[in-house]
Amino acid sequence: MNFQQWLSIAVLAGMMVLFIWGRFRYDVTAVIALLVAMALGLVTPENAFLGFSDDIVIIVASALVLSAAVQRSGLVEKAVAWAGQYLKRTGSQLLVLTASVGVASGLIKNIGALAMLMPAAGQLGRKSGTNPSRFLMPMSFAALLGGLTTLVGTSPNIIVSRVREQMIGEPFTMFDYLPTGLGLLVIGLIFLRLFYWLLPADRRAAATMGEALNISDYTIEARVREQSPVVGDTVASFMKEHDGEIDVTAVLRHGLAGEVRPDLVIDADDVLILAGDPDALERAVAASQLDPSGHGEDEEDEDEQHARARDDVGVIEGVVTARSALAGSSAARLMLRDRLGLRLVAISREGESLRNKPASIVMQPGDVIVLQGTLSAMPGRLRQLGVLPLAARPISLGMTRKGWLAVAILAAAMLATATGVIPVAAAFFTGAGLVIITGALPVDDAYEAVEWPILIMLGALIPVSGALQSTGASDVLATQLAALATDLPPWGAVALVLAASMAVTPFLNNAATVLVMAPISAVFAGDLGYRPDAFLMATAIGAGCDFLTPIGHQCNTLVMGPGGYRFGDYARLGAPLSLLVLVLGTPLIMHFWPVH
Question: In angstroms, rounded to a whole number, what is the distance separating the alpha carbons of residues 464 and 485?
Answer without folding.
Answer: 27
